[in-house]
Specification:
It contains twelve helices and 13 strands. The protein is of the alpha/beta class. It folds into two domains: 201 residues, Glycogen Phosphorylase B (Rossmann fold), CATH 3.40.50; 150 residues, Rossmann fold. The strands form two sheets. A seven-stranded parallel β-sheet has the order 3-2-1-4-5-6-7, sandwiched between helices. The protein is globular. 42% of the residues are buried.
Amino acid sequence: MRIAQVAPLIESVPPRRYGGTERIVSYLTEELVRAGHEVTLFASGDSLTSAALEAMCDTGLRLTSGPVDPVLYHLLMLEEVRKRAEDFDVIHAHVDLLHYPVLRAHRGQCLTTLHGRLDLPAAHRLYSNFADYPLISISDHQRTPMPPVNWAATIHHGLPKDLLPFNPKGGDYLAFLGRISPEKRPDRAIAIAARAGMPLKIAAKVDRADQAYWEDMIRPMVEANPNVEFIGEIDERQKATFLGNAAALLFPIDWPEPFGLVMIEAMSCGTPVIAFSRGSVPEVLEDGVTGYLVDSVEEALERVGDLSRLDRSTIRRTFERRFSAERMAKDYEAVYQRLAGTRETAPALLRSPKPELRLVGTDAVHDAIR
């Protein structure tokens, strides 16, 4: 199949460090290429891929110097996708809802994976206006606040099996990986580790929007607890060691998490997860098998003492069965086939007409059918 993957432009694909959506786009793209599909990736120019790369800006916009308006770059990308829509059987968008007005004439071939939270003001009105777009949720819970829309499937994220190696032994510290933000609750992680008397290592980025939260609340807690080490943002290579050598990952969230990629990253290493039971967490984590579901700091503290009951080999096998990139790609392929079949059988008047080719020279013909 001819598949377009339309990625956010904030980070490269894959991202150099933090960036869950771009990471998933990368894993999916590479698996689809490996399966023999003709894949075109619309992304930043510093992306690394075996697909055909259509560079929409030089680098991920977060690393661009000077003033940048991300909306302008994304609209330019979506206009390019619109112009080339007939080159593809499926256009798979990962840019939330920006493409809806631009690609409406091609909505029958357009699949949208929603990567973020859907309980925001005005979201109900907007999605109701575009209810005919086929959508993918990344967890069943993510769908909860949505109006009636065209859900095609729920497809959980997946990782390459060889990305983060299995560590059968683990270590003696607790880990926190992600962002320093109020909804991620690093303060809870610090409280759990302090009361458990265990070291805590925090590998996290601090966004500009969360700088005050870091300076006013979390940094003083880190400095007041000698058992807490703040490492900062880490890359994929560092992540394997960071998670693999941990006794457990703490995931003490306080928001309706759409998926929680870091949980399956820990599971890939065989590392159990102690997570607050919010959002998608009960779908991803198997209580008593791959970790523990908790509802309070006190309960999390109790479960730290139960970590020896969990088998790291079982955690790794569960990851391989449920959360591999190969499984994720096959799930998407099944949806792509349905979309392509629907498009082929749709009445001709409902399909976008093929562009007319005018024989005005060899270069013009090649440009038209490219």
